[in-house]
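Researcher: Go.
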Amino acid sequence: MKCINCGTKCNSLYRHYSKDIIQLEHCIHCKELVDKYIEFDPVIICLDALLLKREAFQHVLSNNSTQAQWKLTSILLLFDAYTKLVHQRQNGDQINRPMPDSVLYSAFEWDLYFNYFLALIELLVCVVVILTAFIIVSKIRPSSDKLSFMSFMASHILCSCGNFESCRSFYNR
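Model: Structure:
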């Protein structure tokens, strides 16, 4: 557990007074709340992460379960798929697909599913490359304070928010 403001390690995020009453702890170093997102709904945390708030990322990486990271990953893959779809349509790339006025075309939007699968494959290839690099580096240079693979991958996946930024650039033209 870490403070989301300064990164100092903390013993606890909150103190229990009774079954329903808790008090958030203050950081010893910066005197701010250790993690204000403890009381927030997961939807609000995801929205703050999409707004690129550093504290939301720090909460998800340090003080939250991995379930939130998987939800955010699926949202980011959807943004990546949408970005790929917009690029294809702007460039006029036409693959043998049904006409846009077809009921099936509108109901299923096959190109979005295909691009989602493509984004997932790209992410998996990236994970395999990073895992291979981690294994090679750990064999060459063993260290006592290793960065765990899972925390590194969670950080990398959350850094994929740059794909969301490129999607936003289409609308700012």
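Model: Residues 77 and 120 are 7 Å apart (CA to CA).
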